[in-house]
Amino acid sequence: NKCISPVLVRNIIVDCVGGDDERNTYIYKIPFQDLCDGYTHSPSIVIDGQNETDETNCNLWPCNNLYTRCNYAWTCPNGIDEIDCNPLSKCYPDGHECVSPTSLEVICLPVHRTGNGVIDCLGSTDERQHCREQNPDNPILRYRCWNSTDCVPSNCHNSNQCPFEQIQSFWNQCQQDQNIARVIFSLLHDIMLGSGIHLNNKYFILDNSTRFTMYTSVTNQIQIDSASSTVDIDTNPSK
């Protein structure tokens, strides 16, 4: 290792073995929501001979955690990170809203029936992996046609797509029923996974480090200013 003058950095002349002084790289912070969410947000770097990103070594990082809960996007395959979040939902606190292919009405699906490989809901809102894998760079294409592998836009205006939905006049009903539309449009929250867009970036602070493990029902009680946050530590707890 050697030290070089700042004027020699990125001056088109290689002064370091490997060209480290001429690499136009940058360092940025990744919100905890982006870690192990199924999408790679950081460039690969070599650590101890291994290529590492924000999606490696995820076996010990639970998908349902303080940073992914109740942000509308399903980080877990069964969406358990979005359970017990909206008191106004008819399926609160332990189920997911689902459009039944039989009645074409919004029903409640228990969490043990989501992410299990069996499609129970129109649009495959309970089994989201297929359309994510088919269209990783296009979060709009998340509605899976019934009895099909086709993925179409997650809205109510696919009048010429999905044979079953056309026969059942589902698209018209979706446009007229806001409860159905809400379930279908919920698939669009996938955009927050791949794009790095979040309603509120969450960063780790001591004040809320244990809150997730202490309560089974987690609510967003603390909003952290992503630009600056402070932590007050009592160094004299006996007083």
Automatic annotation (TrEMBL):
This is Uncharacterized protein.
